[in-house]
Design goal:
Elements: H1 5-11, E1 30-33, E2 38-44, E3 47-49, H2 51-58, H3 61-70, H4 77-94, H5 100-118, E4 125-128, H6 136-149, E5 158-162, H7 166-175, E6 182-185, H8 189-192, E7 204-208, H9 209-216, E8 237-241, E9 247-253, H10 254-257, H11 260-265, H12 270-285, E10 293-295, H13 306-311, H14 319-328, E11 332-338, E12 342-350, E13 359-362, H15 370-379, E14 382-384, E15 395-401, H16 412-427, E16 435-439, H17 451-458, E17 468-472, E18 487-490, H18 498-509, H19 519-538, E19 555-561, H20 573-577, E20 582-585, H21 598-614, E21 616-618, H22 619-626, H23 630-638, H24 643-649, E22 652-655, E23 661-664
Parallel strand pairs: 4-13, 4-14, 5-7, 5-8, 6-7, 8-13, 15-19, 15-20, 16-17, 16-18, 18-19
Antiparallel strand pairs: 1-2, 2-3, 9-12, 10-11, 11-12, 21-23, 22-23
Helix pairs in contact: 4-5, 4-6, 5-6, 15-18, 16-17, 18-19, 21-22
């Protein structure tokens, strides 16, 4: 029986580190000797874990790391060349200055990349959560260049899974790849034509994360995905850029489910008519089962595969709901009540092939997202690389405590108020400074107000030298196009319904339907996901740069969101997302009537209009226009904290009297 680190050392040959490959057992370690080299496997209750997880669990982590270092677990040719070139780029071109601890994190990325290329990496998902702009992608790029330059690795293929198509051309340019060296596999034929049309002959393959998800839907193994192979074999080096979840979130609300039968009935097939009736009856029954477990309609009995079933809704906005229904077919699921989606069923589907590991994940939000903690503790296939935090002492955050979620952006009045506030923020920024505004996507087909247009029409653009840049939530990751913008405005934050957060958490934990998912777990998942998106959006601006291990001075983030306990986001979390930053409360001030609404706004506009035309207007005339009593007018209008300042900004004052008179100030 082997019970200690010393026992393991005694059982291994002198060359040590390369003999270690795996896991542990609940009451000891089982060592299997093979012809070429010994193997150590670690297991907990027959679940295989990594050697790092084992030594952390038994308290020998520091001793283990010291032994690994002494045994010579240093960078080889590829890793050394990578770090040397990265150091040169940071020093001579990027003016980028990580501290010593952050360099250790960057070197760990190079080490894992090299180990994958050499076939030495444990079958785990390696997460680097170094902050945005720290150089994670740069190290991966330089690792690829070093790999391709070394003939020893001619048979090693590389694959990048990217979240944005725009990143492909940038990476190709940075890597200096020749067309025959790389291939692109996306839905964009123009991009696909950039590289080698024979994917299997290209050393480097760029594809989207969505493409892998699509291939995985049939439960295919990574080794069996012929489109992703190099020289007939799975690509050994795998890099996932940005956020990842091990499972597909599946939610289906009764409002959307009720629309699906109409599409099926148009097919005029008996089996589809029966299925339509079953779905309709199920959707209407959900209101009686909130908080309970129910069995989803069984699509399997129709013999329809996913692609066929989804094709029935190809021109419908509900195609994703149809896909969720197909995955959940015949499954027992939870039913929740959501104020936007109605009564919602939720579940998840594992989407990462079982043999996808080892893979390198580059996600700056790794330390914030609770889903990674579930993945690490419950699935036990995630390994965290050293990822020291960054100081944001050079950042000032101004928080406007106002609801500005996607639901508010469907309301013309709310959008008008948000636009007024954003313009006030811009008014306080130097004219020659560029500004980045992150906003909710506008769906003009649904007649929604356009926040970008509302902001633009309020701006005195000819007087402003600095550009105003816009990106919408959903496109707020993986670009450094705005890295020189020191001022970033988040006009709202990106959130999802509670059922989606629970499905994310359950999927990361691989929790069974009947397992409890606590309110604390739900809250932690929700806060983690919102924090992730705030960090990514803010990181498009200048805070992504690094000077002496921290962000540059003079950076500002304006964040508009409600901090209400039930549906809001806690303001104090901003200090967790951005350590050492200064957080201030902010509210609109200045010439526009951003803080006015209802009768207060109506009174303001009436007074401005009459005074402009006639020179003055009495309080009596204003009260009559509003249909208000004297007491209500004083309490609700005159005493409103923003009413008199707004008039003063227009040069209008109230002269006391019976009645009072509003007129221009006359010195």
């Amino acid at each position: 029986m082997i019970n200690s680190f010393t026992d393991i050392l005694a059982a291994l040959p002198d060359d040590g580190p390369k003999a270690l490959r795996g896991s542990s057992a609940s009451d000891g370690v089982r060592i299997d000797r093979e012809i070429d080299e010994p193997k150590v496997r670690y297991k907990v209750n027959d679940v295989e874990i990594t050697e790092e997880q084992y030594h952390k669990a038994v308290g020998t982590w520091d001793e283990y790391r010291a032994w690994k270092a002494k045994a010579g677990d240093t960078l080889g040719k590829v890793g050394s060349a990578t770090i040397a070139e990265t150091e040169r780029l940071f020093r001579d071109e990027y003016k980028h200055d990580p501290n010593a601890d952050q360099w250790k994190g960057l070197k760990e990325i190079a080490k894992v990349y090299e180990q994958m290329a050499e076939g030495r990496a444990d079958k785990a998902f390696y997460l680097s959560s170094l902050p945005t702009g720290m150089g994670k992608t740069t190290v991966a790029v330089q690792s690829t260049k070093a790999l391709l330059a070394d003939p020893e690795f001619n048979d090693v293929g590389v694959i990048y899974f990217l979240s944005r198509l725009e990143e492909i051309e940038r990476l190709v340019t940075e890597m200096g790849l020749k067309p025959e060296t790389f291939a692109v596999l996306t839905s964009d034929e123009t991009l696909n034509a950039l590289g080698n049309p024979v994917h299997e002959k290209a050393r480097v393959l760029f594809t989207t994360q969505q493409r892998l998800e699509n291939y995985s839907k049939g439960k295919a193994a990574f080794a069996d995905m012929k489109e992703l192979r190099y020289k007939g074999k799975p690509r050994a080096v795998r890099v996932w850029d940005e956020a990842i979840l091990p499972s597909l979130v599946l939610t289906a609300g009764n409002y959307a489910l009720k629309r699906l039968p109409l599409e099926l009935l148009q097919r005029k097939q008996e089996k589809l008519t029966e299925l339509a009736d079953e779905i309709d009856e199920f959707a209407h029954s959900l209101k009686s089962h909130v908080g309970e477990y129910v069995t989803m309609p069984d699509i399997d009995k129709t013999g329809l595969d996913l692609e066929t079933f989804r094709s029935y809704f190809s021109h419908s906005p509900d195609k994703d709901i149809a896909e969720a229904l197909w995955y959940l077919s015949g499954h027992v699921v939870n039913v929740h009540r959501d104020r936007y989606s109605g009564n919602v069923t939720l579940g998840y589907e594992d989407i990462l092939p079982a043999d996808l590991a080892p893979m390198l994940i580059l996600d700056a939000s790794g330390g914030l997202r609770h889903t990674y903690r579930f993945w690490e503790s419950d699935r036990r296939t995630l390994v965290r690389l050293d990822s020291p935090k960054k100081s944001y002492a050079g950042l000032t955050i101004r928080h406007w405590d106002k609801g500005a979620g996607s639901n508010k952006h469907r309301d013309f009045k709310a959008v008008s108020e948000i636009a007024d506030g954003v313009v006030k923020m811009i008014a306080g920024i130097a004219d020659d400074e560029p500004v980045l505004i992150v906003h909710h996507k506008v769906d003009a087909r649904k007649g929604q107000p356009d926040i970008v247009r509302e902001i633009d029409k309020r701006l005195s653009r000819p007087k402003r030298q600095g550009e105003i840049h816009y990106i919408n939530w959903g496109r707020h990751t993986a670009t450094n196009e705005f890295r020189d913008d020191k001022h970033v405005i988040l006009a709202g934050v990106w959130t999802f319904p509670p059922a989606s957060y629970e499905a994310m958490g359950r999927g990361a934990k691989r929790a069974r339907t009947e397992e409890a998912f606590s309110a604390d777990d739900l809250r932690a998942t929700r806060i983690g996901e919102i924090s992730h998106h705030i960090l990514q959006a803010a990181g498009r601006g200048s805070i992504r740069k690094t000077v002496n291990g921290g962000c540059p001075g003079g950076c500002y983030l304006y964040a508009v969101f409600s901090s209400r306990n039930d549906t809001g986001f806690p303001k104090d979390q901003l200090k967790t997302i951005f350590p050492d930053a200064t957080v201030e409360d902010w509210r609109p001030k200045g010439p526009a009537e951003a803080g006015l609404n209802g009768n207060v706004r109506k009174a303001f506009r009436f007074i401005c209009e009459i005074v402009e035309a006639d020179g003055e207007v009495t309080t009596t005339a204003v009260m009559e226009h509003l249909g208000m009593s004297r007491g209500n007018f004083k309490n609700r209008v005159i005493d409103h904290p923003d009413f008199m300042p707004a008039l003063a900004a227009k040069g209008i004052v109230l002269v006391p009297g019976k009645p009072g008179v509003f007129r221009f100030f006359q010195g």
